[in-house]
Structures
1.
Amino acid sequence: MTNTLEHIAVIMDGNGRWAQKRGLPRTAGHKKGAETLREIAKAAADMGIKYLTLYAFSTENWKRDKEEVDYLMDLLRRYLKSELKEVQERGARICFIGERQMLADDIVTEMERIEKETAANDKLTLCVALSYGARAEIVAAAKKVAALAASGRLEPEQLTEDMFKNFLYTAGIPDPDLVIRTSGEQRISNYLLWQIAYSEFYFTPTLWPDFSPEELKKIISDFNSRERRYGKI
Ligand code: IPE
Ligand code: IPE
Ligand code: MG
């Protein structure tokens, strides 16, 4: 049996522990984790996955030490500059979801540039959740809906689930079929709360820097053996 698999969402967790196990600073884990990200994006595209959403930095991660946050932002800066060429060659589209107003202006400018320059690509959509929090996303959507209602352009009674989802950052992207979290933690950590209503979950003890295309293939084969019922019998 196989299930339709269009969209995989990943919680890339365990970078810090990967580094600590080796007596390295946590930042070394983030560096290795960024390499894993590149490898997994390539593998997903080769496997014909249409959408890959990766949790790179949560709204709650702003509370980490300044040193770690600064390192992650610098890694991101370098990444945004170095990856565009390869992304273009692979025909991938990049999009970002999250609270952009929290990010530095130069980073936002680069993000917008990449989104614009890859907008016409259709092989793989790589969606990066950056400064992302699902509750903040839902509240932002609710504010937009409330503003429409207040201005008389929407009757509250007319609001449907299909309309509401178009106010989320993920408008136009199908819901994840499969959510994978690495590092052994079995929680969602404020990720895509609306979108994962009927997703399948896979929790692996592997730390993100050790995650491999081979493991991704095994997880997909497990996913294919599951029966998705959506409340029916
Ligand atoms: C995931 O790894 C990456 C980010 C949250 C930025 P962590 O940094 O959370 O690594 P652990 O969970 O401390 O091992
Ligand atoms: C979730 O990981 C966020 C990302 C992977 C970017 P965390 O490490 O921040 O989550 P908690 O704190 O273990 O729930
Ligand atoms: Mg973590």
2.
Amino acid sequence: MTTYRIAVISGDNVGPEVVAEGVKCLDGVASVTDLRFAYTTFPWGAGHYREHGEVMPEDGLELVKGFDAILLGAVGDPYRVPDKIIFARGVVQRIRRGFNQYVNLRPCRLLPGVATPLRGEKDVDLVVVRENTEGEYAWMGGRHYQDTPDELATQVSIFTRRGIERVCRYAFTLARQRNKKRLVTSVTKSNALHYSMVLWDDVFEQVAQDYPDIQTNKVYVDAMAMYLITRPETYDVIVTTNLFGDILSDEASAIQGSIGLAAGGNINPERSYPSMFEPIHGSAPDIAGRGIANPIGTIGAVQLMLEHLGEHAAAALVERGIADVLRAGAVRTPDLGGSATTAQMGDAVAARIRELAGRG
Ligand code: ATP
């Protein structure tokens, strides 16, 4: 029997609604395997800020450092707390940096039974590997001469050889492990950003030398925004910067058919700290409290978590559970054209996980 300690940060709005379903599916896995999950909940986010004046406690990172993994819902409540407060003091950014989760992993696969806005049959199975701790989202810059006609702001991007190299290495290793097209595509903008992105290209090419069995490709981000729509089936692993990856992975989720389906992992590959898994959507305040959010992104995050923990058979159960429920089509949340609730969708996947293990 193996017990994993999971820190659960449900967050705000739909966060707790979808996380409850992720936990339900993990419990489904526990009921048919030797795995056990011990959850500890941390009530951080915009709600915590409104009550305590802080999004998470000062020593928050210390509190979750010893866990095996973190399951996150969504943090933010833009109707009541300005996003700039949440992001400046935020939970997500602090954990990503503090725990050196320098890879943001966002798989994109067309799921059975879910209509994609793309025309024609496409076999899309790609992963965006986004640099997660530096680049355009480095906390550097300032605002000067505020509220005067001379006001100016700087937002400095930081690109380090070490930072680029480690994320590129992760991408190449992943392409080998996936063993699909064995192709790593670097998304860059070195035709306009002559220092940072030229360094990115140089390091990418140097790392590529160590992986002669993997093909490479270099695409400018503006072209990539088009190609993701016109020929997404040609990609395998895409490695890119923090900002480009943020945008392109949202675009990739749209081609899956709903933002509610997409999952992401914030990975510390060295495992010196816990990694964090989340649906890629935000707190969706417009649909919160109605029980209609799609929980599949969060259940997919649970699958990524199990894979990261090395529990591949359990991860495969969750993956098949999701695919079978979507393929059958009887239980669908409104974003997929159905009328099922968040809880009904979670129930269906958890039940399918038990059935697949022969204990339905
Ligand atoms: P935040 O500021 O917290 O990121 P947001 O509203 O800007 O919130 P999202 O929360 O990602 O961004 O929501 C974008 C749109 O996608 C909204 O219309 C929302 O209702 C929808 N959406 C997000 N998550 C889901 C989900 N799980 N199921 C269905 N629709 C969703």
